[in-house]
């Protein structure tokens, strides 16, 4: 019986080591700007740890901002996967806290993805959630203004622009 317990512990340690190796390798590739190369590593990491929110988030960003997708159809599929991942990340982050920069970033990138897909109403809602989660996300506020203008919501756009310009003048910028 003890032998079986020891083998189980080795298996857990090997799995942990494999996860750490995937995290380190994907981080190194990202630092080198090799986003495309991180996708299979992060996919494997997500398979091993489906509740690792950081891995889910990094995979979503890699899928969204990949530099050379194999085809337009493959990129559309990647965007759908990234959307599901970002939505899941936002839910996981909101269970931790209703506000904060991590939650705001998840909503911000979801907004960018939705905007790229032509879902301006969805993007607008995501940017609103981003700004509400972190009032320093003035880029989310600016994107709200741009989309409101695109949608012909001119009164709302003017109010959002005025608020944005007031906050920028105060220096409330997020890096």
Task: Write structural notes for this entry.
- The structure is a single chain.
- The protein is mostly helical.
- The protein has eight helices and no strands.
- The chain has helices at 2-31, 35-48, 53-65, 72-96, 101-116, 120-133, 138-150, 154-170.
- Helix 2 (35-48) packs antiparallel against helix 3 and helix 4 (72-96) packs antiparallel against helix 5 (101-116).
- The longest helix is centred in the N-terminal third of the chain and has 30 residues, at 2-31.
- The protein is elongated, with a radius of gyration of 20 Å.
- The N and C termini lie far apart (56 Å).
Features:
175 residues; mainly alpha; elongated
Number of strands: 0
What structural class should be given to the helix and strand makeup? mainly alpha
| Strand composition percent | under 5%
| Low confidence ranges | none
Cα-to-Cα separation, first versus last residue: 56 Å
3D shape: elongated
Sheet having the most strands: none
**What letter string, H or E per element, gives the SSE order?**
HHHHHHHH
Spatial extent as radius of gyration:
20 Å
Give a concise summary:
This protein is 81% helix and 0% strand. It is mainly alpha-helical and 175 residues long.
Please render the helix and strand layout as text.
Elements: H1 2-31, H2 35-48, H3 53-65, H4 72-96, H5 101-116, H6 120-133, H7 138-150, H8 154-170
Helix pairs in contact: 1-2, 2-3, 3-4, 4-5, 5-6, 6-7, 7-8
């Amino acid at each position: 019986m003890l032998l079986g317990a020891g083998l189980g512990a080795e298996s857990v340690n090997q799995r942990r080591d494999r996860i750490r190796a995937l995290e380190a390798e994907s981080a190194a590739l990202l630092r080198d700007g090799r986003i495309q190369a991180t996708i299979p590593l992060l996919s494997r990491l997500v398979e091993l740890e489906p509740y690792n929110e950081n891995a889910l988030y990094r995979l979503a960003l890699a899928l969204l901002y990949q530099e050379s997708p194999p085809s337009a159809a493959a990129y559309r599929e990647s965007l759908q996967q990234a959307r599901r991942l970002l939505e899941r990340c936002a839910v996981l982050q909101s269970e931790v806290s209703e506000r904060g920069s991590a939650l705001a970033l998840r909503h911000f990138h979801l907004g960018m993805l939705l905007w790229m897909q032509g879902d301006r109403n969805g993007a607008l809602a995501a940017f609103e959630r981003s700004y509400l989660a972190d009032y320093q996300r003035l880029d989310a506020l600016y994107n709200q203004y741009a989309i409101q203008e695109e949608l012909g919501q001119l009164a709302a756009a003017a109010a959002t622009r005025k608020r944005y310009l007031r906050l920028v003048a105060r220096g409330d910028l997020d890096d």
